[in-house]
Amino acid sequence: MKKILVLASALLFVLGCSKEESTKLDEKSAVHFAAQRGCGSMHVLDEQLKSDPSLGSRMREIETFTQEAIASNRLVNGVIEIPVVVNVLYRTAAENISLAQIQSQIDVLNQDFNGQNPDFNLVPADFSGVKANVGIRFVLEQVIRKSTTKTSWGTRDDMKNARKGGIAATSPATNLNMWVCTIGGGILGYAQFPGGSLSTDGVVIDSRYFGNTGTATAPFNKGRTATHEVGHWMNLRHIWGDATCGNDFVADTPVHNGPNYGCPSQPHFSTCSGTPREMTMNYMDYSDDACMYMFSNGQKSRMLAIFAAGGPRNSFAQ
């Protein structure tokens, strides 16, 4: 998993004697030294440095790595952590969204992909057995801003091309790039599925539907547009399979007639074979932000598969 940190035990003696080390003292020694702590770790280190000149260099590298990991909150244990680069293209002050608005979107992603969203408990009983904690963490790595004269960017990836006035992707093999701009044409956002060109890899979200504060506009003001698009980036299809009673390649999501809009009344049934109850609250439907609040376990398995060894996004899990 990405940035699974195993701190070198050799560095521990620099910080002093541990409780475990102190228990190695025999009972007699413990009594003798109880009044004053004594530790020979630094003496041992001094001797090691004299006998192995390269040790100092190695320890400095380890310490630099450790401090950077701590500062960037990358001390994870078996969790896939996705660094996010947000590229903001703006013509107006409103389009130049604040850092607070950007961070609110990262917070929403972390809630939605970890079953920590406040509305997770609203999942109907019919689906409570399959609602998923995906277990993927997102961290804001960098924000890049660029002024533009464009009033809208469309969906041809020009915002990702510096020669066309956009911002080129930053290390897309190990960063999720998100472009925030005015898309136009009634499009809230779009994503690239795994397998596409690295130069255009990532998701694009209209600034009016990014995060849950600032310029975020109802009914798409709870950050779920990005949750939906990142789902695509992780290889999820629309829940209706982009066809009447289509296939989204997930076993535990019901067959849908087509997309649902607004906040469908519950329960909402399909007219497809078996008339199943539709999972309108799934992030991969088209419901309003306030009315989508779950992934399924099948979707979780599909997403995690792309990070497995040999998967198209395995570089994020290293």
Arrangement of strands in the largest sheet: 2-1-3-5-4
The termini sit apart by: 5 Å
The succession of helices and strands, N to C, reads HHHHHEHEEEEHH
Mean pLDDT: 80
The Rg value, from CA coordinates, equals 25 Å
Q: Which percent range describes the beta-strand content?
A: 5-15%
- Major sheet: 5 strands, mixed
Provide tags for this entry.
5-stranded mixed sheet, 318 residues, single chain, disordered N terminus, alpha/beta, 24% helix
Structural summary, described in words:
Mean pLDDT is 80; it is low at 1-45, 61-67 and 69-77. The protein has 8 helices and 5 strands; from the N terminus they run αααααβαββββαα. The chain has a 5-stranded mixed β-sheet with strand order 2-1-3-5-4, covered by helices on one side. With 318 residues, the protein is an alpha/beta fold.
Question: How do the strands and helices of this protein lay out in sequence?
Answer:
Elements: H1 12-15, H2 19-22, H3 27-33, H4 41-51, H5 54-71, E1 80-90, H6 99-112, E2 136-147, E3 176-181, E4 189-191, E5 203-206, H7 224-233, H8 297-305
Parallel strand pairs: 1-2, 1-3, 3-5
Antiparallel strand pairs: 4-5
Put the structure in a nutshell.
The protein contains eight helices and five strands.
